[in-house]
Amino acid sequence: MKNFDQVKRILHDAAIRLWLYREPLYKALAVPLFALAILAFLSEGRLSASKTVAYGAIQLLAYTLLAINTHRIMLMGPGSVPKWGLIRPTQREARFVLRMISLGLIMLLIGLIALIPTIGIWLMGIVSIYVLARFSLVFPAIATDNPWSLGEAWDAALGHQIMVIVVVGLLPASIGAGRILLAGLPYSKGLMIVVSSFTTIYTVAALSLVYERIHSVEE
Questions:
Q1: Would you say 73 and 25 are in contact if contact means Cβ atoms under 8 Å apart?
Q2: pTM of the predicted model as reported, rounded to 2 decimal places
Q3: Residue 70 is inside which H or E element, if any?
């Protein structure tokens, strides 16, 4: 029960802090959000291999800047980023991307579980959410100049699995179910982009507070 109370507090505090920091967040996230919106419209239909790679690289960079700016504002305040956000990649952003790629490769390996007859898909989903949640603390750590390894993030999440699983796994999944319903509406492309952006920002903000809670306990 204590863990669920903590989860409710984190989700509540994330919404409050997003509202309090809405103006600096709007400015700091304008560039990556605009880039993601443009890519969403350009990527409709079949793409050549070169365009797929190029769009994927730009999308990865945009999500990296969005996440780092959000983590820093949530954890360190608006003064931790320039007025219009961090838009020039540095060593910090490079570490962030490398951790994302490493985690992506791990998730590909976990995808092999789907080959198990009957229960493979369900088992893969459960393992994916658990592993993703345990490793996810690496991202707010790196964003705030604490260059954790994936192993350090895994160890830090020990004993706090419910918090990270709800925030990183179940929260986006539940909101994603709503997006599926929206997809059937006419002219839903723009609405889907807005909902997707909000989901990402809120999840990142909540993850920031999970990291803050765990980091303060460790200290």
A1: yes
A2: 0.88
A3: helix 49-76
